[in-house]
Amino acid sequence: MARGSRNRSKESRSKKRQEQEQELQDLEERVSSFSEVVDHFEDLPLSQPTKSALKNAHFVKCTDIQKKAIYVALKGRDILGAAKTGSGKTLAFLIPVIENLYRRKWTPYDGLGALIISPTRELAMQTFETLVKIGRLHSFSAGLIIGGNDYKQERDRLSRMNILVCTPGRLLQHMDQAINFDTSSLQMLVLDEADRILDMGFRKTLDAIITSLPKKRQTMLFSATQTSVSDLARLSLHDPDYISVHEHADHVTPDNLNQFYLVAPLPEKLDILFGFIKTHLKLKIIVFFSSCKQVRFAFECFKRLRPGVPLMHLHGKQKQASRTEIAAKFTSTKNAVLLCTDIVARGLDFPAVDWVVQVDAPEDVQTYIHRVGRTARFERGGNALLMLLPSEEAFLKRLDSKKVPIERINIKEGKKTSIRNNLQALCFKDPDLKYLGQKAFISYVRSVFLLKDKEVFKVDELPTAEFADALGLPGTPRIKFLENRKSNASIKKKEGKTALEASDEEESASDDEEEASDASESSEEDEVNSSKRTIRSKVDRMFERKNQGILAEHREKLLERSFSGAVASDSDSDEDFMRLKRVSHDLDDEKKEKPFLIDSKRKEKVATHKKTLLKYRPNPEKLVFDEEGNAVPFYAVNNEDTFLKDGAVAEQITSHLQKEREALTQADLQDKETVREKRREKKRIRKEKERAANGFADDIDKDDLGSGNDSAAYESEGAEEEAVPVKKQKKWFQVDEPEVDRNIVETEMPTTLEDQEALALRLLEGA
Ligand SMILES: Nc1ncnc2c1ncn2[C@@H]1O[C@H](COP(=O)(O)OP(=O)(O)OP(=O)(O)O)[C@@H](O)[C@H]1O
């Protein structure tokens, strides 16, 4: 009996296996004979688990790139896929990855089958999520390998993974360090945002990765912007298929995207942005800056100015946990403003973004296309606003030549607001904010300095003093790299080189610096090292870090003083700051100690006896130092006659005491003020802690979530005068053409505490 049932189950197992084999064989045949473009996933030659998962995720109809790329990729061909932003490229490569492994009967024991490389961590995470969604009914193992995660944990799981989604730097780290990481069985390599991964920033990393991968593999490249042919050669593609669905479209950007630009002087950019936010409170907005420090400064200032909408910020200098949390929060929020750098520019799919605002112009048209592509995704509408400096108007030519339609707008005079005074007050009150402002200033100038397109980005035409003033800074911070550039250029000129060559060399040096970094976040150091990299001491770094532009000058003076009289040397450098240099301490000839010459037996004996030796020394002279630091004999400072010239002794005593008393009173007043300031600070910290306990914490030093509501913490400190009144400003700008539909989203039921607060604020202020 038992044997009978065992036989039956054996039979049914082998029957099932045979059916599966047959199914796979049929699928293989369908794939190889398939050559039509179909509209629905259901009609593609896909396995049942994939079809079911797609259906469950509500993916029914294929987009253009999916129609044209999936069936070709299923045949194992190399692919170069290009389609506009938000057109569904992710599924176009994920479906073939899963299916091709499935048809090859890949199991967890077969090792690594597919590698998907993304330029940023957030994009890798998003791709991984989609992979999990559509591959959940398969039995493959998949892993996410990105910087900022637990390296050990990743390493221990590597050997068991069939599909890996990763960022280039972290992948190479594992390739170099993890003994159990074997890539020899790899079947497929996918480069998402291929042009970015193949460009200079990742060149060395990617080349090192490619050399470790088997040559016989399927390679798929996808991007919204074109990959240069010379870059492709590095991948040794096998007779690739070029699938470019929007090649003949009128525009390279989505058709349902309205694009505007305005010409804004540098000092007015933050005013304009703040005005824009205040007049678009109910919308979801992404704002791009060129550096992390600008993002932080704008975020810290704006949240204190309470625009009445949740504010968030995202950049590469935040901890990974914060980055992930903020990205998730912005995804789920209906209306919010996300201030960010270009780590958000590519691939990220935040739902229902209404506006993309570029406060700083992008480095090139490619970056522009990717940035604006964060809105108007997959059949939705969207709007984009670009701020150009008067000196950057040449960028419009670049956009035009790449088929980007953009329209000029002007802000209505009556709608202009200024937050300059508010920023000044904030920076005055909070040295940390001022320090951040100084860093933001330097970062911005540096970013313009580093940009390649010198016809558009002209660092020498930046109104730096006015810009510093507009940021609320008490003075213009020193821009050391520009000074270095000038001095380097003049040295090079002397050596027969032109200034242009000199600055080009500096740029290429900084390109090298970028190579090892993640995405575009590397250009964040405030100081540009000149073409020769110098080793900086701890003290140098400290001076560079704290109060740039204030201490830097102080330090220069210190240096001047310490080295005045020093033996001039060509090798003078910053490291010499802590090194004692030979300083001439020559005294007058007559005061010089006569050398004790040992020219007889007697003197030889004396030389061993300290006390006797003293009589050969000149008489000691008591010296004091005057205010200029000159040594003068003690008794020469004052004698009785000169002393009495200033009045009788008693009078002088009284006036001296009077002066001292005044000085003490003054010092006392200052002390009292300091104590008061400390008390205020304590109170503020206590209040912040209380708020933190209630879930409202947001610390300037923490890269955590932020919202407009955080500024409430400053209310009791008399910050009311900093709040700019909220007015209902419907028409913020004017276009020559009829008004564009701004795609206003109605307020939904607030879901989070921040939403509720922002809504309450708006209601109170009548927005
Ligand atoms: N066939 C489909 N049906 C419905 N929605 C889809 C389909 N394909 C993709 N989408 C959705 O469209 C959005 C954009 O897709 P995806 O992120 O893949 O675009 P992309 O072309 O990679 O954009 P980018 O160039 O910015 O990286 C996503 O929200 C995705 O879920």
Residue fraction in strands: 5-15%
In total, how many beta strands? Answer: 17
List ligands, each type once.
adenosine-5'-triphosphate
User: Class of the domain at 19-244 in CATH?
Assistant: Alpha Beta
* Largest beta sheet: strand ordering: 10-11-9-12-13-8-14-17
- State the CATH superfamily name of the domain at 19-244: P-loop containing nucleotide triphosphate hydrolases
Tally of DSSP helical segments:
27
The CATH architecture of the domain at 19-244 is 3-Layer(aba) Sandwich
- Report the biggest beta sheet as strand number plus sense, adding barrel if it closes: 8 strands, mixed
Unreliable runs: 496-535, 546-593, 696-730, 736-750
EC number: 3.6.4.13
Region (Disordered): 1-28, 492-533, 661-730
Family: Belongs to the DEAD box helicase family.
Biased composition (Basic and acidic residues): 8-20, 661-678
Explain this structure to me?
The protein is α/β, with parallel strands linked by helices and 767 residues long. Among the domains are: 19-244, Rossmann fold, CATH 3.40.50; 257-470, Rossmann fold (3-Layer(aba) Sandwich); 580-658, no CATH class. It is built from 27 helices and 17 strands. Strands 10-11-9-12-13-8-14-17 form an eight-stranded mixed beta sheet, with helices on both faces. Helix 16 packs across helix 17 (431-450). The protein is elongated. Residues 59, 61-63, 66, 83, 85-91, 224, 347, 349, 373, 377-378 line the site of adenosine-5'-triphosphate.
